[in-house]
Amino acid sequence: MNNNERADTVCSTGEFDEDETPFVEQLKRRKKRTKPLDSPPPTKKTLVDNIQAEPTNPTSNIHKPPPIFLKYNCTSNYIQLCKDIQENIQPATFKTKSGPKHLIILTDTPDGYRAAVKYLRNVKIEFHTFQPKEEKPFRVVIRGLHHTVPVELIKTELEKLGFKIRNVSNVIINRHGTKIPRPLFFVDLEANENNQNIFEVRSIMLGIVSVEEPYKKTEIPQCQNCQQYGHTKGYCNYGPKCVKCGRDHHHSQCTKPISEPPTCALCGESHPANYRGCTVHTDLQNKKKDQPKQCQIFPFGDSPPGTLENACHQKSRPCSQLSSSASKHR
Ligand SMILES: [Zn+2]
Ligand SMILES: [Zn+2]
Ligand SMILES: [Zn+2]
């Protein structure tokens, strides 16, 4: 996995805009996996309860690789393109499906998928894809731990119990512009058969905690690179579009004066491209509500079969709402 891809897998930090998602409240309403306050207090003298995660081998399940969506303007010579891809991914093979807006490449193995992505990036073909299932972290929320406990320490304590931790981040809510850390931590674990055991952890650094499943957002992800909906920046190989002015550059290079109104890269109206009231977003949302689940994966109408697992793989939020407070472990 290259750095871009990995960066995206860890970019969803703990910061929340309170008016966007009453995350904490929704989490409270969810069925708890554990009832730590009703449970007997920890009796062990270690900082973490002595619940050892059973050592198991990493999951050996091989998931179907995600599809790769190529823009049609990159695929004028279909036969040559197929030859080139085949040469670069062998011994893996692939099939294609031509949708209304994209040529879709369906590789048969994870190695073939990675080789195809690498080749397409090298030759600068515009495409987007999704995070492979085996690379998705297993995310849980730790509730009840003091917000000042360093994330590195939490990581170490959980690793002592046999868990493979990719990332720990404190949940920070944004209340009227003020950032407020909460006694909640997101923990991303590498795929492993012992991951369910983390729900049994009752105490970390003397804090009585509960480990819960996070609330799953149903928002359509938006790419922070090209601004399109349905994929995220780590899996995007399109040219950048500015979220503020809609032109072909990253927003960090934008020279638009503040006095000038924004221009949406998606609809051309006078708002930033991540405005949720944009007609492109509202149309997609309405379409999503009307469609059966299988069709919701490909909001732009390209729907190869058997790829349900690739839906909405990452949370996406405007750059302004992202916090860099999370510790990023690679
Ligand atoms: Zn994109
Ligand atoms: Zn700009
Ligand atoms: Zn718009």
UniProtKB/TrEMBL annotation:
Cite the record's Polar residues compositional bias ranges: 317-330
Q: Which stretch is the leader sequence?
A: none
Identify the domain of life. Answer: Eukaryota
Q: Tell me the segments the record calls region Disordered.
A: 1-48, 295-330
InterPro entries, A to Z: Pre_C2HC_dom
What sequence ranges are listed for the domain Pre-C2HC?
151-221
What is the protein name for this chain?
Pre-C2HC domain-containing protein
User: Which organism is the protein's source?
Assistant: Ranatra chinensis
